[in-house]
Amino acid sequence: xxxxxxxxxxxxxxxxxxxxxxxxxxxxxxxxxxxxxxxxxxxxxxxxxxxxxxxxxxxxxxxxxxxxxxxxxxxxxxxxxxxxxxxxxxxxxxxxxxxxxxxxxxxxxxxxxxxxxxxxxxxxxxxxxxxxxxxxxxxxxxxxxxxxxxxxxxxxxxxxxxxxxxxxxxxxxxxxxxxxxxxxxxxxxxxxxxxxxxxxxxxxxxxxxxxxxxxxxxxxxxxxxxxxxxxxxxxxxxxxxxxxxxxxxxxxxxxxxxxxxxxxxxxxxxxxxxxxxxxxxxxxxxxxxxxxxxxxxxxxxxxxxxxxxxxxxxxxxxxxxxxxxxxxxxxxxxxxxxxxxxxxxxxxxxxxxxxxxxxxxxxxxxxxxxxxxxxxxxxxx
Length: 381
Ligand SMILES: Nc1ncnc2c1ncn2[C@@H]1O[C@H](COP(=O)(O)OP(=O)(O)OP(=O)(O)O)[C@@H](O)[C@H]1O
Fold this sequence. Notes:
Blueprint: H1 9-16, E1 34-39, E2 45-51, H2 59-71, E3 79-85, H3 88-99, E4 117-123, H4 130-143, E5 148-152, H5 160-163, E6 171-173, E7 176-178, E8 181-182, E9 185-189, H6 204-216, E10 225-229, H7 236-244, E11 249-254, H8 260-274, E12 278-289, E13 295-296, H9 303-315, E14 321-327, H10 329-337, H11 341-344, H12 349-362, H13 375-380
Parallel strand pairs: 2-3, 4-10, 4-11, 5-9, 5-10, 11-12, 12-14
Antiparallel strand pairs: 1-2, 6-7, 8-9, 12-13
Helix pairs in contact: 4-12, 6-7, 8-9
Bound molecules: adenosine-5'-triphosphate.
Adenosine-5'-triphosphate binds near residues 123 and 130.
């Protein structure tokens, strides 16, 4: 924006202070990424930027953000961005800045005072739409302005990256893993660390260690919500999560058809055993809307409500049916195309239902999650 007024370095630096690194989510001026600012006589500006790694997949985006911010400063002519890469010392500095000086990474969500709500999405069996619900809720929450992460811990299915429409790999800065982001959602999947579609057959301690790493070594930033896509059924992963993040709450996804008693019993048993709170139930594939507007219920009806009722009795605290999501081609297509239905067809019946569930989750108070379990009473009754 050339105005005849010569641009000042402080104005350019102030503009750079508004540019955030897409992965780290902090201003580039705060994390040592601005190497130099040179204002030339012809009002053009040269900006030197340090990338965290040479293979940084976001170099183009960072360059564009910097160019745009600087070009908007009064008096600035052409903008040139020159990229450089941090050396080891600078990366260590960055890690310390983000992580503090701790030798061993800790799980931020397990620390007292953590403000991140952690929702572990579970189902009694596979194929009920657990990953679809996770990804859509995450995207809808991000749309509402929340900072959201998804950890795909479904070691059998890991479909989160596909459903979020990104095959980007995480980058690594020192021992920190930077999660890629799409549709405003940061995500990490076991699938990003395995070759192709090789199924992962980790069990027990190895799996526990992998989860611990994903929770501690990944730089998630200050999340409002972290959603965990658990493998179907109950087992090692649910127990590990409860140990690693005691405040995580369980969100149960079921279909109307599922044997309510069975699902509720298992989820309830896990919650009691791990002393976790059950956030609520989402019924998926509830009905199919026919062209004439009538509803067909291929999987029967009432499953979600029954699961919620039984869970309420099992844990002795109210468990709500948070919503019912109809069967819809747009939802499946959105998952396949990597654009969740809450974005591709937000006003479709499934898109609206999922957004309404996200709205319920969004208004829950930060930091209170899992604090009052009320389960001790149940254990003794
Ligand atoms: N409401 C719906 N309408 C149409 N298709 C759906 C709906 N919910 C899920 N699907 C489709 O059903 C298939 C299974 O869904 P998804 O992968 O989300 O289930 P899952 O419970 O996570 O399965 P797994 O745990 O085995 O990975 C996907 O192809 C998905 O697009």
